Amino acid sequence: MRMGHPPIRRRKPLGLQVISILSRSVSRAVVTGAGSGIGRAIAVELARQNHEIVILEVDEAAGEESAAFIQKSGGSARLVPCDISQTDSVRSAFDQLESLDILVNNAGIASVGNVETCTPEEMDRIYEVNVKGMYHCLHFAVPKMVQAGRGCVVNLASVASYLGISERFAYSMSKGAVLSMTMSIARDYIDSGIRCNCICPGRVHTPFVDGYLEKNYSEQERPEMFKKLSEWQPIGRMGTPEEVAGLVAYLTSEQASFITGSAFEIDGGVTNLR
Ligand SMILES: NC(=O)c1ccc[n+]([C@@H]2O[C@H](COP(=O)([O-])OP(=O)(O)OC[C@H]3O[C@@H](n4cnc5c(N)ncnc54)[C@H](O)[C@@H]3O)[C@@H](O)[C@H]2O)c1
Yes or no: is domain 25-266 CATH 3.40.50.11270? Predict the structure, then answer.
């Protein structure tokens, strides 16, 4: 068979293009945990792509700040206060939305320790936010996407979803579940026009990382530890929230219409390079 570029489609006359752009309804993107770090960068980038942003955030002040920043930059954003670990809170948040086109399940919390040091309370805490919280958002969002016959979900997993990283017992458990939930949703809703993928970042410099350093190391130890964390990535540094947001923007765009049921490493070489 002769390979080559597909034939170039003839463009619609300009007048018809304008009409179809005007008649397209506003695209709404829900981003959880967009008050900080990666989630905030994702919300800002999706707003730049002309999506109307709905921020689901437990830290109301931080969520308001992100929404105000987007509005000041000319975008559309609003906060719906929500604790994703609480069923009623998530139900009520999605009840306020008539429809949504994109769901970015970003909110998550960190945990350090092995199976011996991880207390039953810590295991519950991580499960309630990172696993059940994501389940809640999927549970209340997917029916709206099914009704619309289209939708796009991006879940924040981690390289910990599939690598054995030391002292990350509960966190790895939760991110493994994110990977599995991603594949399950992608499979079950492929015929409903819903795409679902996940992103597996290596270390990204956010308050998540700074909080970990503050909690576990003295002021004197922190610079050395920061260097160590940076050098863990073969590329020699941590990622930036904006780099992750760029990948989310691509996955939620029309250009990614053939991509579903995939996990994308964005990790400075952690997974594949030695
Ligand atoms: N930073 C990294 O190195 C890294 C690496 C891999 C994966 N991730 C994942 O990326 C996501 C974002 O990480 P980040 O570094 O930006 O974290 P972050 O701590 O900077 O931000 C997380 C946000 O989620 C919100 N949140 C926490 N619990 C919530 C709840 N119950 N309901 C609603 N909102 C809640 C927080 O208030 C915060 O605004 C997380 O899922 C994390 O596991 C981060």
Answer: no
